[in-house]
Amino acid sequence: MYLINYKLRFLLPIVLLTSCIKSYEPSISTVDVNKLVVSGVVTDRDGNQTVTVSMTSAVKKPAEKPVTGCTVTISDSLGHTFPMTDAGAGNYKGWINPIYLIPGSSFKLEVLTPDGSKIVSDFDRIKACPEVDSVYYIRKDVPTTDPAKPLHGIQFYVDLNGNNDESRFYRWEGFETWEYHSDYPIEWYFNGKLHHISPPDFSKSVCWLTLLVRNIYTLSTMTLGENKYKLFPLNFVDNRTARLVYKYSLLVNQYSLSEAAYNYWKLLSINSTDAGGLYERQPLAAKGNLHNLTHPDQVVLGFFGASSVKSKRIFVSKVPDLELEYSSPCAITGLSPYGFKDYSPMDYPIYLVGDHNGWQPAVLGKSCVDCLSLFGTNVKPDFWPY
After folding, report:
1. What confidence tier does 273 reach under pLDDT thresholds 50, 70, 90?
2. Which fold does the domain 32-126 belong to in CATH?
């Protein structure tokens, strides 16, 4: 009887919980899945431009679906045309002479797809963009579900200092780069035969990884007395990742926007925010500026814009008053009781703990000796300070 009562006490909360939770399956039709997505922005950076063309995929089977074989052309309001070349994987690249990329110039996009659909965008005008005033961080603790255990880290900010002749609409984009190390050099390994490398191979010991910060940051100063803003929040970096162990860098790109572009990106930022959860807000349809002239009833997703861009980079190392809680992904396991016979050639090479005196029956995970296995590069970026 005691066992029955125990089982009931254990199962009852589960039954109650599962009876109250009902899975939500978004209703997405086939028409919604197979939509064309076109995106790109003409910038005054260096003349090189990129446009991407793809198709949406099913929610349950997300996948990249690039569209190749399109004829893509950018043109300005003065009648100049700039053809784009199919670079593969849905990317179309071209060059516009910087003499045309000045504030006040307007550009539009035209895409002819392989099935004969003609997609055009509205004109979008380049607005003057001020220099990035400053990028900095402040040591910060972020509350978690456990009030006694906040998340420690650093919060990045950007300051805006524009004048009345420059844009009043902005978007910021961040690229983070950090240095990370493998815990061991390559010295002992087995690939059918036992090998010893002397001196040890450190060529895969130091790597760098660069990623786009996924957040969307937008700001309008239209309601402000001046075209200025202090302490605009960017990304937060906590003390539990490898980012702050050695050296971290954040590149901030500041885009001037037209009002139409701002409205589009603002809607995307609202739609992608983590606040409130996915199912506490109905998804917003981010209407862009692209139109299917061949099939007007078919919606084209995305936005084609024109912006002036300014950039600034910041480096961070050894943050004061921030104790790191990073755990290395390096895993060390004991060698199989059957030795190397228990490993197939698909497992090779098997890296081993050891030094110049010999090896030990302990197997190093690949990330322990090969920083490239964590998706970075062992080629130091040109901008890295040492």
Report:
1. low
2. Immunoglobulin-like (2.60.40)
